[in-house]
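Hi all, long-time lurker, first post. I run a small reading group and we've been trying to get comfortable going from sequence to structure in the token notation. Rather than ask abstract questions, I figured I'd post a concrete chain and ask someone more experienced to write out its structure so we can walk through it together at our next meeting. Sequence below, copied exactly:
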Amino acid sequence: MVLRQGSGRSSQEGLAIIPPRWKAFLPLVLLAVSGLLLAACGEQTASGWSGPALAGDAIYMGTKGGKVIALNVDGGTQKWEYPKDQKKKVKGLYSTPVVDNGVVYIGLADVSGRKGSLLALDAGTGEVKWENRAVGPIVGDVTLGNGNIYVGSSDHYFYSLKASDGSLNWSFEAGDKIWGGSAIGAGKVFFGSLDRKVYAVDVKTGTKVWEFEAKGSVASTPIFADDIVFMGASDRQMYALDAGTGALRWAFKAENWFWTKPLLQGKTLYAGSLDKRIYALDTSDGKLLWSFGTDGAVRSTPVLVGDALVVASKDGRLYGLDPATGAKRWETAPEPNEKAALMAPLAAGGDIIYVNSTSGRVFALDAKSRSTRWIYQATK
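-- Answer (accepted) --
Happy to help. Here is the structure in token form:
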């Protein structure tokens, strides 16, 4: 409607089980995994924060209603949905899709938090090309490289799979759940775990190269650039690690968790925090360049649209900032009369921003005029 062959696992714990060391942060944990907690109590409503992925003339995402969908960028009409059966849903879509060579890859997690799969769909039709159900519940995003898929799971394992058929290349066992995505660089793949560690493993073999222990669980997604790995953690720190050795280059401390994947532009790192602020950091030394406060936690990865840095907040608003100074140029609320949060990563093409709201609506917004091009209401 308009308006991304597994191995055995050592644990069958549900996603909704909160690690003891997180209890001091219980309110924020409830914010992040409320859909999974409801599921464990018998609530059958699908949930998640899947962001839109733009490829060609379509955007792809998981909906709050439990469907993977493809929408036309012009008009927002639906091209297809998975599952096609109106009565069937995917319970728990937290992974943002990745599209490559006409295939949509997305991770799934069911309501129990004990099962999941990695799904490959035809980008044109939504038909299933393959599905690997041995990988466990997937919350983080898929990473593609050299014809392979790299993805972490709540079964504590990190997997390398062949993109062509989903068969296993290798798996690596971490000490706890893996809720974030990964980054590839310098012959390694980097990812974090709720065991408080950042791992670097050989991209071809899965052999551990190094590990770095943070002071809190690591549920975010790293980025790699200039032989540095940038990654946030629940200890309120944004870390810059030497990609070759794992040695700490610098750390910047905020007032709350860094959960979202940061954005790198030149020598500036833009990182949102659950302390309701977006930070601009100098990548060479972690020096704070500026920060901007919103009225809600910043869980969504920002995007650059034209000459503005666009930041989404749990307060339901989008903020257009000067990337150099952090000065606010504009702000808008896609749903001013709704108590809807913006937690999913944003996508942008040209001057258009694509937003997946917790209300179940998808918006295409013109960044210049702040007008709404179209609205898609997902099936509930």
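A couple of things your group might point at:
The chain has one domain: 20-302.
The longest helix spans residues 26-40.
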